[in-house]
Amino acid sequence: MNAHINIIPLFVIIPLAGAFLTSLIGRFCKKLSDLIGNVVTMTLFMFSLYAVYMANKFQVLVYEVGGWRPPFGISLVLDGLSGFMLVTINLIAFMITIFAINYMEKFTTKWKFYTLFLLMLAGMNGVVITGDIFNLFVFLEIASVASYALVAYGTEMDELEAAFKYTVMSSVASIFVLLAIGILYAYAGTLNMADLAGYLSQIPNAIVIKFVMILLIMGFGLKAAIVPFHAWLPDAHPSAPAPISAALSGVVIKALGIYSLVRIFYNIFGVRQEMLNIFAFLGVLSLMVGVLLAIGQWDLKRLLAYHSISQVGYIMLGIGLGTPLGILGGLFHLFNHSVFKSLLFLTSGSVEYTTGTRNLEEMGGLREKLPVTANTNFIASMSIAGIPPFNGFWSKLVIILACLQAGKPGYALWAVVGSILTLSSFMKVQKYAFFGKLKEKYTNLKEVPVFMTTAMIVLAIVCIIGGILILPGVERLFIQPAVDIVVQGAKYKDIVMGALR
Amino acid sequence: MSIYFLDFILLSIGLYCVLRKRNLIKIIIGLIICEYAVNLFLILIGYKLNGRSPLFSPGMEIKNMVDPLPQALVLTSIVISLATTAFVIALAVRIYQKYKTFDITKIRRLRG
User: Fold this and answer.
1) Which positions in chain A touch B98 (Cβ < 8 Å)?
2) Closest by alpha carbon to A418, among A331, A306, A326?
3) Which residues in chain B have their CB less than 8 angstroms from residue A171's CB?
4) Between B48 and A418, residue with greater pLDDT
5) Is A145 within 8 Å of chain B by CB?
6) For residues A164 and A347, what is the distance between their CA atoms, to the nearest angstrom?
7) Which helix (H) or strand (E) covers residue B55, if one does?
8) Closest partner residue to B42 among A138, A162, A182, by Cβ?
């Protein structure tokens, strides 16, 4: 169709090539692995901005892998939702690799971190752009296996235990997903998402579809850490080194869990009210359980991990409402949560880098010694708690308004209560870690090195100006195309098939 | 139909093993049983009684071919489960070196 289409497979090829090169060269030349990692993520970020532009211009672009036309071959599909996810993933990945230049110095095998991180990035980008449901599973597993190894990166007692729990639970989730895909194939005889949507829309009420839906909710729910399936997350995310925690909490649970749920339940199965009610209920359950468990935590990273569960609940609530406003709020909150949760984990990493502890009781008065860390952490905390004018406020406001508009004031009330509890929890972080009296053992602290502060400042700026994205006019550029694709529901198949001709 | 039912029982055995066993190695074996059950299910989708291989050549009539796609899917899924299994066994070895036990009730440093 046009030459721009060749950009689509690059999102998988570039990080895979980067991972390969790093694994070859990295062990001989340490500086080169830094360079490769950062150049790869920077290129991908540039390309993802271009991809959003393309998705706005052409609505849907379909790349046929190996020249085989869908539904026979694997197709890669770039649409508004994919473009939105690509920007989110690659922005966070870019900032994380910048942060890792200094932070990962304390580990001996830095190049292994870059190799695994780029593999995980390839998997996530692949999940987001694929148009084939089995291919989605393959990329899901690439990203998951890389993330298991990254959780175990420190190879101490805690890391190993957390990685074992995570691996077993996540593998069971993958088994459910594969079983569901197998049943779908046996039933419909196709694996292409658009084709599958076309077939399933003819027979919407078969009992086997309900069984497949339940398997998929279990599978992707485990990957996304929605509440009944959340037990692995508070162990796995804090155990990894800070840049990896930021990647896991910031983008992995969203690209593997929430994106897949949205794509499959909206665009393949079509919009079904009973499923949306389950999503919204699980969302409210997650946001309350997550925040209640977070309040009692004294380990900084564990507290942040529980807040991830809670914030994923907000996203699920917004998406589960099913109205265009709710989906807008959910997707906007997905982007915002990626930014501020990565920033929070990075600041917790720089606190750990300088003081050597994650326990809030042992900190205090760090604001004097670590001004950049303290201020960026303050911005991110206010953002996650939903204080205007930071970006978290706008997305929570949209979600709460959407609850009221959809006639569910009860859910809106829970969302407000959850937000207040989040605020109280982050007040505790501010009070114990950054305000108060400086402890004597910390009088010689210095601010973290330049690359770490750069990454934190950039993310903090995105937190401050993120609210702009939802202004009328600006939203058309980035968020609205994604919402349009989700709202289309099963009409997605017509759009994709239309793009092929 | 009964063969699908037997396959489902195999999957349930694997899940029971993952959920109830306390030994790390037994949990891994449960995981492997689950993966086998799902792979077997994929193979059963494509299977046909007295089917022939899906090769097309001139002068041959196309009938009763087995579906080749699930076989390709199973190969991919076997490779993936190989990677996961190798990783999780390496993890179990490292855990044994640190904790000197395979009992998950004694490997409980993270909680709360």
Assistant:
1) 156-157, 160
2) A306
3) 31, 34-35, 84, 88
4) A418
5) yes
6) 26
7) none
8) A182
Helix (H), strand (E) at residue A174: helix A157-188
pLDDT at residue A306 in the model: 94
Asked if B69's CB is within 8 angstroms of A163's CB, the reply is: no
Query: Nearest residue of B to residue A190 by CA position?
Result: B69
Residue ranges of chain A whose pLDDT lies below 50: none
Query: What CA–CA distance (Å, rounded) separates B93 from B98?
Result: 9
Answering whether pTM is above 0.90, one says yes
How close does chain B come to A164, measured CA to CA in Å?
A: 7
Rounded distance, CA A92 to CA A160, Å?
26
Strand (E) or helix (H) holding A17: helix A10-25
Q: Are A70 and A62 in contact (CB under 8 A)?
A: yes
Q: Which two tokens stand for residue B8?
A: 């489902």
Nearest C-alpha neighbor of A420 from the set A314, A227, A291, A283: A291
Beta carbons of A419 and A288 less than 8 angstroms apart: no
- Give the residue ranges of DSSP H helices in A189-272: 193-202, 207-224, 233-239, 242-247, 259-262
Domain segments of chain A as ranges: 273-470
Task: Write out the two tokens for A140.
Answer: 């899901």
The answer to whether residue B60 neighbours chain A at the CB level (below 8 Å) is no
Interface contact flag, B41 A179, Cβ < 8 Å: yes
Q: What is the ipTM of this complex?
A: 0.95
Sequence spans of domains, chain B: 2-99
Cβ of residue A178 closer than 8 Å to a chain B Cβ: yes
How far is A248 from A338, CA to CA, in rounded Å?
Answer: 10
Q: What gap in Å lies between CA A179 and CA A185, rounded to an integer?
A: 10
CA–CA gap between residue A328 and residue A402 (Å, rounded): 9
CA distance A146 to chain B (A): 10
Residue type (1 letter), B32: I
Q: What fold, for B2-99?
A: Helix Hairpins (1.10.287)
